[in-house]
Structures are given as structure tokens and as C-alpha cells.
Design a protein that fits this description.
The complex is a heterodimer of chains A (294) and B (259).
Chain A: H1 2-32, H2 39-56, H3 61-82, H4 92-114, E1 130-132, E2 135-137, H5 139-161, H6 163-173, H7 175-180, H8 185-211, H9 224-231, H10 236-261, H11 265-280
Antiparallel strand pairs in A: 1-2
Helix pairs in contact in A: 1-5, 1-8, 1-9, 1-10, 2-3, 2-4, 2-8, 3-8, 5-6, 5-8, 6-8, 9-10, 9-11, 10-11
Chain B: E1 2-13, E2 16-27, E3 31-35, H1 42-50, E4 57-62, E5 65-66, H2 72-78, E6 80-83, H3 95-102, H4 113-139, H5 155-168, E7 173-177, H6 185-202, E8 205-209, H7 213-219, E9 222-227, E10 230-235, H8 237-242, H9 244-251
Parallel strand pairs in B: 3-8, 3-9, 6-7, 7-8
Antiparallel strand pairs in B: 1-2, 1-4, 4-5, 9-10
Classes of the chains: A mainly alpha (294), B alpha/beta (259).
Chain lengths: 294, 259
């Protein structure tokens, strides 16, 4: 029972982090219908910016964090304005190829700038593990979860109440109508990339804090596909729930099945879910069914 | 006084000529209808006015300003509101949220807004919201559904919400693309009453496209008839109904439209 609870709590903690990364992906997809295969690389760049600020420049954690957000926002802005803006109206497959190319470029650049060596962060959070009753949670995981959920919460508030958030939701709902409401749809696209990039970079920062940074840190970004397929590509609430489900299943599968077969189940489980979901509900648990207009 | 002047507009997609040398002017405060058979170019004109299509030749002046090269959102901020043939509401949102979005047209929605939101803009929005709630919702008799998500509403009500959202933009010109298409007799009657009330009480100029001839003849001040992208007639309902070109091109030999 204790073992189960342990797996469950670490699953929830990891799931919260997945949720944040998936949010970054969904934000961009919802507003612009672009599937951003470079999400993982946005995370990786975020982690490296933090590393540069805190280790190379010796800045304290909070200013470093602010630099990460600013840098990620700028990166999102640049990518949208210089590359994807010009892809408007192109076939989906071309745009997907562009984002895949972008991920290779970013990975290459990271290797050029920071080398491919493993780098670790200074301790960001109190090292003492969190103990609740019999449960022990790793401090990095716990605080990572807290930061991730806080960020998701802030984004949720923006979308619910702030004028830009509502305008972004409107743009996602119906571009034509948004335009005729006087909403500047193009700047909403830019904003979606800025927000998406910031969400991913904070996710990257948390992952980097747990496991260190390498140019291939972004490969964890692949996990968001089971998450967003589960939750529906265009549902923010679904992305959060999908994150938790994948995190929990992954950990339970790892804990119970790995010893039986000699490992590896933990990494495969999310993708098994992915295939199953696609077979049963191709639009995800919470996604919008595309209904053909007759 | 003309609030909108359209001069010699040409629009084509590739080799397909959609609008050919269309000119008309709309006076402030009138209901101006555009009719014509399917494919005559009616919706294309609305799309040119709204900024979704860009004509190759010709000019569109709104209140004396050339708006030909402005984006749709800029035109909306200047006072052009629109309802769509296929309802274009934000389906996941409530009626009230949809209507509130209409009033966004006045408030800037740029990249820096998030930062400025909690100051002046917030108060502005609160005042606006109150005004909208009192005024437009009462006016269009949708008080009882204002908290409901629009996707749950009946078709006629959705159309009414779309109209409410357009009015919340406090436009100078309202473009309506087939406001009663697909409505039953009762819903149509309601909509006609609202359109007439809007014109009267809100001093609004309305440009309307519609297939329902009875309704058009009843409410329009002036009518323009399009056929194959060209203007073939313009005038008040009586003039248009008796125009030989119109009878030939649009009504055929069937006199239904004259009843």
C-alpha cells in the first residue's frame, strides 16, 4: 500500500510538470492550429538560459527565472514573426516539417553554445524531502510540481479573466468572428507563441533542476504527445488532466511492471496509452470533435 | 449624407470575376439591402466591406476615410460590425461572454494589455459590462439565457445573440448576412422587429443581404440588385420590384416576390 501511494504521489508530481509542458503545446495549437514539434527544444533552451544565468553569471534564482521568462518570450516572438508568420496558409505537413526542422536547429545551436556536456543546476529549492505521514517526496519533484501548478494556474486566470486571454480564446474559437470583433488576430498568434514558449521553458527549467541539462533534454517533450492526445489537442483542462493521468500510469507501470520484465515499461506505457486512445477516441478525451459541415 | 461609399469595386479570384465595377453609396441611418440570385456576389461585397477580401480595383470610403487597405480588426474598431450567414459565435462561451467580446472592439487588445489590465482598463470594462447588460440584453430580450453556453441554444436565439454581440461593438454600420435564413415564421418576425427597432432607436445604418423577399421589401429603404457580380438596379422597393432587368434576372416570370 505504501509502495502504491509512493508511486501515486510521484506520478502526480511528474504529471503536474507534464501538464505544464502540454499547456505550452496546447496554447499554440489552439490559437494557430500549428503542432509544435519543437516544444521539447523550447524547454531545453529555457533550462540552458537558467543555467547560464545562475551558474555562468552567478545570478540568484529569482532574477534568473525572470530572465528565462523574458528570453523564452522573446524566442517565441522571434520564431513566430520570422518563420511561422510566413507559413500561414501552407499545408499542415509543411508547417510540421518546419517545426521539426526548428527543433534540430535549436538542438544544434544549444550544442554549439553550451556543448553537449551534462550540466547541473545549483540547488534551487530546500533539499530536505517533503514528508507527509509515511510518504516521502523528493524535494525537487515536490517544488517542481508546485511551480508547474502555479504557472498553469496563472495561465488559467489569464484565459478566464484578462482581456487578452479572452481575446485569445475568441481567436481560437473562430478566427473570422474574432477579426470582426476588432481583435488583432495576428498579434494573438504571436502572443500564443510567446505564452507557449514561456510555459515550455518553465517546464524545461523544472526538468533541468531535477535531472540536469543536456541538449537532448527536449526528448522528454515527446511525452507530451500521449498527454495531449489523451486530453485533446485543443483543451487546456484536458492537457492538465492528461498530464496527471500519464504521470500516474507511467509511475505505476514502472513500479509494478518494470521489476517483472526487467525495466523499460515506464517509458513505453505512455505511448501504449497513446495508441489505445487513438484507436478509441481519435479526438482525445476532451478534444473537439471535428464535424463536417454539410 | 453618405456614410459608406463604394466606388468601382472589382474583385476576382484567379480568372473568376466575382464583382465587376460595383458602385453604391449608403446613407446614414438607412436600411440598405443587397439582393440577387445565388452566386451574384452579395457575400463577396460584405467580405470586401469587412476587409476579409481585398478588391483589385476600386475604393471603399467609410465616413470619408478610405478603408480599402485596412485589416478587418481595424475596420471593426472604426465601427463596422457584422453578423454571419453561418453563425460565428464563440461556441464554448456563454452568451454574456460572447457579448462582452463585442465590446472589446473599443478597448485595445494588443500585446501590452495584460500588464495594463488591472488599472484603468478594468474599470472601463466594468462600466461597459454594466451598460451592455442593461441595454443590449434587455433590448434583444435575451436576459433569461445570458449565463448559458451558446452551443446549447436554439438556432433563432443564436442568431439573436450574434446580433447582440455585433451591437455591443456599438457600430456605426451593421452588416447582416442573411439574418433570417433558416428561421421559422415566428423567429423571422422577431428578427424583423429587432432590426427595425435597432434602426429607429440606435440610429444605426444597416446593410443587409437576404433571400426572404417579403422581408426585404418590407423593411428596406433602398435595395441594390446584383446579378453575376454586376449591379443591375437600385432604388426603393417599389422601383426595384418593377424594374424590368430585375424581373428578368432575379424574379424570372414568377411574381411571388411582388406579393
Amino acid at each position: 500500500m505504501d509502495f502504491f501511494l509512493l508511486l501515486l504521489t510521484s506520478g502526480i508530481a511528474v504529471g503536474g510538470i507534464y501538464a505544464l509542458i502540454a499547456l505550452g503545446f496546447v496554447l499554440i495549437y489552439k490559437a494557430t492550429s500549428i503542432i509544435n514539434f519543437a516544444t521539447g527544444e523550447f524547454m531545453m533552451i529555457g533550462a540552458y538560459i537558467f543555467y547560464s544565468c545562475s551558474v555562468l553569471l552567478g545570478l540568484p534564482a529569482i532574477p534568473s527565472f525572470i530572465v528565462v521568462m523574458a528570453g523564452a518570450g522573446l524566442l517565441g516572438l522571434l520564431v513566430e514573426k520570422t518563420i511561422l508568420r510566413h507559413m500561414l496558409g501552407q499545408p499542415t505537413i509543411s508547417i510540421v516539417m518546419v517545426t521539426i526542422g526548428l527543433s534540430s536547429i535549436m538542438m544544434g545551436l544549444a550544442e554549439m553554445i553550451w556543448s553537449s556536456d551534462y550540466k547541473s543546476f545549483p540547488a534551487l529549492f530546500p533539499r530536505a524531502p517533503i514528508i507527509v505521514g509515511d510518504l516521502i517526496i523528493r524535494s525537487n519533484l515536490f517544488w517542481g510540481f508546485v511551480v508547474a501548478m502555479g504557472t498553469v494556474g496563472i495561465f488559467a486566470l489569464i484565459f478566464k479573466y484578462a482581456k487578452v486571454g479572452v481575446a485569445m480564446r475568441a481567436t481560437a474559437g473562430d478566427q473570422l468572428a474574432a477579426f470582426s470583433m476588432g481583435i488583432n488576430v495576428r498579434s494573438m498568434f504571436t502572443l500564443a507563441w510567446i505564452f507557449g514558449s514561456i510555459a515550455a521553458s518553465i517546464g524545461g527549467l523544472i526538468i533541468g533542476n531535477i535531472g540536469g541539462v543536456q541538449p537532448n533534454l527536449g526528448s522528454i517533450g515527446l511525452k507530451i504527445f500521449p498527454v495531449v492526445i489523451l486530453g485533446g489537442l485543443d483543451s487546456i483542462g484536458g492537457a492538465v488532466l492528461g498530464g496527471f493521468i500519464v504521470g500516474i500510469i507511467e509511475n505505476l507501470a514502472g513500479g509494478y511492471l518494470d521489476p517483472l520484465v526487467g525495466g523499460g515499461v515506464k517509458n513505453v506505457a505512455p505511448f501504449v496509452i497513446l495508441v489505445l486512445i487513438l484507436m478509441v477516441r481519435p479526438y482525445g478525451l476532451f478534444g473537439r470533435k471535428e464535424i463536417e459541415r454539410l | 449624407m453618405a456614410i459608406l461609399e463604394v466606388n468601382n469595386v472589382h474583385l476576382s479570384f484567379g480568372g473568376l470575376q466575382v464583382l465587376h465595377d460595383v458602385s453604391f453609396s449608403v446613407n446614414s441611418g438607412e436600411i440598405y439591402a443587397i439582393i440577387g440570385p445565388n452566386g451574384a456576389g452579395k457575400t463577396s461585397i460584405l467580405n470586401c466591406l469587412g476587409g476579409f477580401y481585398h478588391q483589385q480595383k476600386g475604393q471603399i470610403d467609410f465616413n470619408g476615410i478610405d478603408i480599402s487597405h485596412l485589416t478587418p480588426d481595424r475596420r471593426a474598431s472604426l465601427g463596422l460590425a457584422r453578423t454571419f450567414q453561418n453563425i460565428a459565435l464563440f461556441r464554448g462561451m456563454t452568451v454574456l461572454d460572447n457579448i462582452k467580446l463585442g465590446s472589446h472592439a473599443h478597448l485595445k487588445t494588443g500585446l501590452l494589455d495584460a500588464a495594463l489590465y488591472w488599472g484603468r482598463a478594468h474599470r472601463e470594462e466594468m462600466e461597459l459590462r454594466e451598460e451592455i447588460e442593461k441595454d443590449i440584453i434587455d433590448f434583444l430580450e435575451i436576459e433569461h439565457i445570458r449565463k448559458q453556453p451558446v452551443s446549447t441554444l436554439a438556432y433563432g436565439l443564436q442568431k439573436r445573440v450574434e446580433l447582440a454581440r455585433a451591437l455591443a461593438m456599438q457600430p456605426k454600420i451593421l452588416l447582416m448576412d442573411e439574418p433570417v435564413a433558416g428561421m421559422n415564421a415566428e423567429e423571422t418576425e422577431d428578427m424583423v422587429r429587432f432590426i427595425l427597432d435597432i434602426q429607429e432607436e440606435r440610429d444605426l445604418t444597416i446593410i443587409i443581404i437576404e433571400h426572404d423577399m417579403r422581408m426585404i421589401m418590407d423593411i428596406s429603404d433602398r435595395i441594390m440588385v446584383l446579378n453575376f457580380g454586376q449591379k443591375i438596379a437600385e432604388g426603393n422597393p417599389q422601383e426595384v420590384q418593377q424594374h424590368p432587368e430585375v424581373l428578368k434576372a432575379y424574379l424570372g416570370t414568377d411574381k411571388r416576390g411582388q406579393s
